[in-house]
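A.,

Following up on our hallway conversation. Structure tokens first:
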């Protein structure tokens, strides 16, 4: 029996979440991370701005009182890592997860296409940010991801 390349690779999905205002983003990142965690998935959150990474670290502790999402900042992680959610500001190296959440990115990082599932944001409130999101959307599509657009 011959196995085709489509059978060898599981479907990869990239979901772009409509963002009507910048104030929505941090909570939506926390909601997606919690949702994935509850499904038993591991999550990497890429926040290239260290201040945003620190804010996300705090937000994951406080965004919902009844929900605990175990997480760690990559630079503070002990090896082996046991936390299912990792926040990082630089290229993740050998860190692998089921899901990548792009907290912000001008372009799709080359290493991002190694993740089977990507969440990104489509900020419709700003034309420059929207154009960057379109470029990331097209990069994911060209990389073979199944594309979805989500209304938040």
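Then the amino acids I'd put at each of the 152 positions:
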């Amino acid at each position: 029996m011959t196995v085709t390349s489509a059978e060898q690779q599981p479907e990869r999905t990239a979901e772009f979440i409509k963002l009507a205002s910048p104030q929505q983003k941090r909570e939506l990142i926390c909601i997606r991370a919690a949702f994935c965690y509850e499904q038993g998935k591991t999550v990497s959150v890429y926040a290239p701005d260290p201040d945003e990474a620190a804010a996300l670290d705090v937000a994951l502790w406080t965004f919902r009182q009844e929900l605990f999402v175990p997480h760690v900042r990559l630079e503070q992680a002990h090896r082996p890592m046991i936390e299912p959610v990792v926040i990082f500001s630089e290229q993740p190296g050998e860190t692998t997860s089921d899901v990548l959440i792009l907290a912000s990115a001008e372009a799709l990082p080359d290493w991002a296409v190694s993740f089977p599932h990507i969440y990104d944001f489509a900020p419709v409130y700003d034309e420059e940010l929207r154009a960057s999101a379109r470029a990331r959307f097209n990069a994911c599509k060209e990389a073979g991801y199944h594309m979805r657009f989500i209304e938040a």
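The beta strands are 13-19, 43-46, 71-73, 85-88, 99-102, 117-123, 146-151. Curious whether your intuition agrees with the design.

B.
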